[in-house]
Amino acid sequence: MTNETPSCCSPSKGGSRTTRDATTDRDGESASAAKDAAAGEAASANAKPTGNETRMRRLLGGTFRMGTDSEVGFEDDGEGPAREVVVDPFAAGIHAVTNAEFYEFVRETGYTTDAERHGWSFVFEEFLTPDAREHVVGTSGAADWWVGVEGACWYRPKGPGSSIEDRLDHPVVHVSWNDAVAYCDWADRRLPTEAEWEYAARGGREGTRFPWGDELEPHGEHRCNVWQGSFPEHNTASDGYLGTAPVDAFEPNGYGLYNVVGNVWEWCADWFDPDYHETTAAENPTGPDDGRVRSMRGGSHLCHESWCNRYRLAARSKNTPASSTGNIGFRCVANV
What spans are recorded as compositionally biased (Basic and acidic residues) (predicted)? Predict the structure, then answer.
């Protein structure tokens, strides 16, 4: 396990790199047609409630203990000190936004994601399709298992040659913070603050590492989608999934929310600050007024305790607002 900047969690784009016209795919096919083909005709028929109809769970809010003082935490990430925090009532999505839901947003608005505009996004090397391996534009220097792939985006999550046709109920990935905010604006939702995210994710539990307790796999039972085996060489997929899982896989937490740890990182509204717990308000904290990177919570299917155990409830991570990878998604909340 390392305490370095978590590029292993999700690498950042070092700047704007445009390798192709964002309105056309590399074979000249229109972007709209490419999206429709990737999603398939099943997108409309199989989509769960979308936009303003997305299922939400009303949460009462109140005082809860946020953060951790545990030795398993990363001090440099600002996971503590643990403290009492108050949040107002709000509603939280019972799961992360799905590919089907994001497809409806794009089809209605014509929105183009940051990954599409930049022309590439980060894909975990093991997941590359044969076609995608011919379109690698570089690697993340600190974690070479992350490769930049031309054409990788939300509807081609593993790069050229992949699609979302068989994963409409999986969380949308390759979405930047900017993309998540755009979706939320369309859906009359917003991203959660870090405090709201942790309140919702804890599901009424105080002080535990996970939504179900302190053991990752109580009695040998898998409760979330994280890396199984030896990272990054071999994933046994003993939890049932090599990559992302459906958004409602595994049992929900005490508030009825699914996959709040593992599966995909979830963007939060706040700018990231390692001094968060020492400088922000105790009532409805919103993070600093500005910054360079946005906060993410929850960990992903690529997390493993031997390298980065940031799939815990108190764990924090970050990335630049325009960055996108194959393990970052988001969950919406709303005012009540």
Answer: 18-29
